[in-house]
TrEMBL record:
It comes from Favolaschia claudopus. It comes from the Eukaryota. InterPro entries: LRR_dom_sf. This is Uncharacterized protein.
Length: 289
């Protein structure tokens, strides 16, 4: 492939590239073509494969305020990209792999490096045919060692335990929205930890918490008790609880059955407890809006 002219995009602000097949040999040339796009602020890149070659480009990462990467990257390569995106406000990594066992983990990301970062979505492409990584790769990025002023955090497909999730949350005390989707930590143990009377982690600014899927494999009484507890504690205004400012809890169902025109996942008495909180507006349920 011949190098593309790098001076044809003087007014470009948003760039979206979706490339099929094996294009790694050309990836550097393609990205280099935009190194002199002075007003470029947003990049969306979708690839089937990728490697450390992406780090050889002279692409102006430092200009970006929005970055969406849907491509297989090891956490050390993701780290190397992030440290160049010093103006970043919103970012999505949707297909992160763990480092090789012999690879030295990347150092912590200093908050001063990404002072404007507010929105971070981190997940695994669950449509991939590749197995999930055997360790929680979010921790490979050492997010737990850094403190960012994030307002929105979305985690999907992560093999985090409940304790590891809380470890991550300690680094982001400014969160206003938290989404936990398809993660291994969604369990009765997590629900108990979220309603602890003396929590080890507090998110004083959190307004919206979204957890899904909620399935019949969980204890319905624990789900109902968690919902009731979070509602009561938020309404009491007690600053010592985990989510003192919570105004909306979203528990999207993953399975169930229709009974008399209503979707039910748990026993009727549990569904009645959940329904009473739905009526307050505090609880949002995908099948009961």
């Amino acid at each position: 492939m011949f190098p593309l002219p790098a001076t044809e995009f003087p007014a470009l602000t948003n760039l979206a590239l979706t490339m099929e097949g094996h294009i790694e040999p050309d990836l550097v040339l393609i990205l280099d073509a935009f190194k002199h796009a002075p007003f470029l602020r947003s990049l969306k890149l979708v690839l089937r494969d990728c490697s450390q070659l992406i780090l050889e480009t002279t692409f102006p990462w430092h200009q970006l305020t929005t970055l969406q990467l849907s491509l297989p990257l090891t956490s050390d390569v993701a780290h190397a990209i992030l440290v160049q995106c010093t103006s970043l406000e919103r970012t999505t990594f949707s297909h992160i792999l763990e480092c090789d066992i012999d690879t030295q983990p990347p150092p912590p990301l200093p908050p001063a490096l990404l002072p404007e970062l507010r929105d971070f979505e981190f997940g695994w492409d669950q449509g991939s045919q590749t197995d999930l990584p055997p360790t929680p790769v979010l921790l490979d990025l050492h997010a737990r060692s850094s403190h960012f002023a994030l307002e929105h955090l979305a985690l999907s497909g992560q093999l985090l335990t409940p304790a590891e999730l809380l470890s991550v949350l300690r680094t982001v005390p400014t969160l206003e929205t938290l989404i936990v989707s398809g993660c291994a930590c969604i369990s009765d143990e997590l629900f108990e930890m979220l309603t602890a009377n003396e929590p080890s982690t507090t998110l004083p600014e959190l307004r919206r918490l979204e957890i899904h899927p909620i399935t019949s494999m969980l204890d319905g009484n624990n789900v109902a008790t968690m919902t009731e507890s979070l509602f009561e504690k938020a309404n009491n205004g007690d600053p010592s609880v985990m989510f003192p400012s919570l105004i909306q809890l979203c528990l999207y169902r993953g399975d169930g059955r229709f009974v008399n025109g209503k979707w039910e996942t748990f026993a009727q008495e549990v569904e009645d407890r959940i329904a009473s909180l739905r009526e307050t507006g505090f609880l949002v349920d995908r099948y009961h809006r």
